[in-house]
Amino acid sequence: MEAVRVARATDAGRIAELVDEFAQEMASRRGASLLNDPGGPGPGRIDGADAAAVGDPGRLALVGTLDENVVGIALCHLEEAGPTGWRGVVDACYVEPGARVVGLGGMLMDQVLAWCTDHQCRGIDGFAFPGDRGAKSFFESAGFKARLLVMHRDLD
Question: Does 156 fall in a domain?
Fold first, then answer.
């Protein structure tokens, strides 16, 4: 049976493992060289242990379970959106490949959307690497639309 719940402090180790799996899966994507750039947009800013911190009102850490085993995560935080309010930012929504057919990713995203709505966010941003059709389709299925394409050039 699949379920979604707010992460507990005891989930921090498993969340860190899933963040590592997420990063490894993304490593082959175009643009992934910036994945570990903590100053950049997207998944480089996540830290599994920090994201699972209980009691931080500006962060959400969810776990998705299959038969009570943690097989997915959704990590989100709030960002100021200028003088007009808040924006939710999806740092990661990841389900292990073997558990992707049961709709757990959608269940995680539904909870992210509800949390952002409860926090009166004006909108929610999520990130997909160029050419990552799966991620783009996942976000689109949850009602997201592309609003900005970030271009980058290394100067090394």
Answer: no
86-95/121-126 β-pairing: parallel
User: Any idea what the CATH number is for the domain that residue 95 is in?
Assistant: 3.40.630.30
In a domain, 99, yes or no: yes
Residues of the chain above pLDDT 90, percent: 56
The reported pLDDT for the residue numbered 53 is 58
Is the residue at 151 inside a domain? no
Measured from the Cβ of residue 9, the count of other Cβ atoms closer than 10 Å reads 11
What does the pLDDT look like over 15-51, one tens digit per residue?
999 999 988 887 777 766 665 555 555 554 555 545 5
The stretch 39-68 carries a mean pLDDT of 70
For residues 78 and 49, the answer to whether their CB atoms sit within 8 Å is: no
- Find residue 74's DSSP bridge partners: 62, 93
Mean pLDDT, all residues of the chain: 85
Could you list the residue range(s) of the whole structural domain that residue 95 is in? 2-141
In a domain, 79, yes or no: yes
Q: Which of 54, 56, 93 is nearest to 78 (CA)?
A: 56
Q: In what order do the strands lie in the sheet with 2-6?
A: 2-6, 59-66, 69-80, 86-95, 121-126
